[in-house]
Design goal:
Elements (H helix, E strand, L loop, with lengths): L2 H16 L4 H12 L5 H19 L1 H16 L7 H22 L1 H7 L3 H21 L11 H12 L8 H11 L4 H27 L8 H28 L3 H20 L4
Helix pairs in contact: 1-2, 1-3, 1-11, 3-10, 3-11, 4-5, 5-8, 5-10, 7-9, 7-12, 8-9, 9-10, 10-11
Length: 272
């Protein structure tokens, strides 16, 4: 793997991990379209360290506050009604489904996860789900209205992101909109609930990838991880600001068009 490939794929990983357009899909599509080798799971696992660091750093104040409130509530039952203490339980609750399904379907995900037809179809299908969420969502709820039911439903939606091309942020933001949250709250809730999933999945993949060749030099890997961190941090900040005054329709149409292009190019043999 050249330095140029490492640069491009690091940026792709960072941007697409948090925008609702699927990082797994893009790390398969971009190399295929550019005529590069599939970077594989080992490279993906290492580069994901950058996006892990980005989401933890961006939400560090929230995470410290939530963790502290949750721990205090274990000792003092009167504090369990506190929003931050409750959010700690919701984050745990939302992580359970993706953990269970990730372990059960690990082999199927890894064996079918590089299929371009599947990725293209998922991009289109869940782009239309996001469109439907925009149309029917009331957008009347904020972060103060979050409940245990919301945590469980968004957690189940997050588990759908195990399907390549779905997008973790796309599925969870869609669920938030269906539940009546406004766009910024749906995105923020999505990102907070995703922190354990992003961190644990990155460490899990890294564990499995140890000893495998990443195809990149140490310098290339370092550059890719750094750029994944920088672009990932920027993507989180951008999306939270963007959704204050904009809909998610630009991501819907991007997904539908890209999915159609991927299926067409694969069917014609232009990419494999």
């Amino acid at each position: 793997m050249s330095i140029l490939e490492a640069i491009v794929l690091g940026i792709v990983q960072g941007l697409t991990e948090f925008l609702p357009i699927s990082s797994t899909g893009h790390l398969r599509i971009v190399p295929a379209m550019l005529g590069w080798e599939d970077p594989g799971t080992a490279f993906t696992a290492v580069v994901q360290l950058g996006t892990m660091a980005a989401v933890v750093l961006y939400f560090r104040d929230d995470l410290v506050r939530i963790a502290a409130a949750w721990v205090r509530s274990l000792r003092e039952p009167s504090l369990r009604a506190d929003r931050d203490a409750r959010m700690g339980w919701y984050i745990i609750l939302a992580t359970i489904p993706i953990g269970i399904f990730g372990v059960i379907f690990k082999d199927q995900i890894e064996s079918g996860g590089r299929d371009l037809y599947l990725i293209g179809a998922a991009l289109i299908a869940f782009g239309l789900v996001l469109l439907m969420a925009e149309e029917v969502g009331t957008r009347r709820r904020g972060m103060d209205d979050v409940g245990a039911r919301d945590g469980l439903i968004v957690g189940l939606a997050q588990a759908l992101a195990l399907i390549p091309g779905v997008s973790r942020s796309g599925a969870t933001i869609s669920a938030g909109l269906f539940l009546g949250f406004d766009r910024p709250s749906a995105a923020r809730f999505s990102f907070l609930l995703s922190v354990p999933a992003v961190v644990l999945s990155g460490l899990f993949e890294l564990k499995d990838a140890l000893g495998e060749s990443t195809g990149a030099s140490a310098t290339g890997l370092g550059v890719a991880v750094l750029l994944a961190f920088v672009s990932g941090y920027a993507a989180i900040a951008f999306l939270l600001r963007y959704l204050v005054t904009h809909t998610t329709l630009v991501f819907v149409w991007y997904r539908v068009v890209l999915g159609g292009v991927v299926i067409t190019l694969t069917a014609t043999g232009a990419i494999t």
